[in-house]
Each structure stands twice: as C-alpha cells, then as structure tokens.
Amino acid sequence: MNPGRLELDDQGGWCVSGDLRLAGAGELQRHALSLLQQQLPGTIDLRAVQRADSSGVALLVDWQRRIRQAGRAVDFLHVPTSLGRIAALYGITALTGASEDDHAD
Fold it and tell me: Is the domain covering 5-101 a CATH 3.30.750.24 domain?
C-alpha cells in the first residue's frame, strides 16, 4: 500500500499521489482540511494516484464542495480512468468532465 499524499504545486494547486483508499482517507482528509485553511486550490492534479476506491471519490467530492462553498471553482486534472469509472458508477459527474488519462490503474 502506498499512502495517499497531498502537496501544493508551484501554481497554488494540489497534487495528489499514492492511494486514495479507505485505509488512508482519514489522514489525507486531515491534511486537506489543514491546507484549505491556507489556500484554496484552483486545480487538483490526480496524475500520480495509483489506486482508488469509493472513499477516494468521496474525498474528492468533499474537497470540491468545500472549495466551491468558499467561492472558488476547482478543476480535476489527469483523472485516472479507474477513478472516473468509480465516480460514474455512483452517478458522480464532478470528475467525469475533467481531463482524464488512460494510464494503468
């Protein structure tokens, strides 16, 4: 297992890497809430996400909701195909309109 990581990029966006799964969701959410206190990202780059489950989709949807409630739009970049599929299964379109990659799951 590769724990999920969340970092700021040099443009003020977020870069997510590792696994977006239930096992690490709590820690990742705490870190995200801390970052939201500092800065609202305009983008969330998911190119380095290796594995995800429905908990990962829930995190992304929550982050998007919080950012929008604070008055800023956010775009998801390089959404892994597997993550887009999970979102589509639940009828979540927040990720499916984003830039999707066809890299391996």
Answer: yes
Map tokens 């709590």 to a residue: 26
Dihedral Cα 87, 91, 93, 94, nearest 10 deg: -60
Task: For 32-51, write each residue's pLDDT tens digit.
Answer: 999 999 989 999 999 999 99
Sketch the domain layout of the chain as residue ranges: 5-101
Task: With CA atoms as reference, report the closest residue to 80 among 43, 49, 38, 34.
Answer: 49
For Cα atoms 31, 33, 38, give the angle at the middle one, nearest 5 degrees. 95
- As a whole number of angstroms, the distance between CA 76 and CA 61 comes to 10
Tens of pLDDT, residue by residue over 85-103, are: 999 898 887 775 544 454 4
Supply the pTM of this predicted model.
0.87
Question: What is the distance between the alpha carbons of residues 52 and 40, in angstroms, rounded to a whole number?
Answer: 23
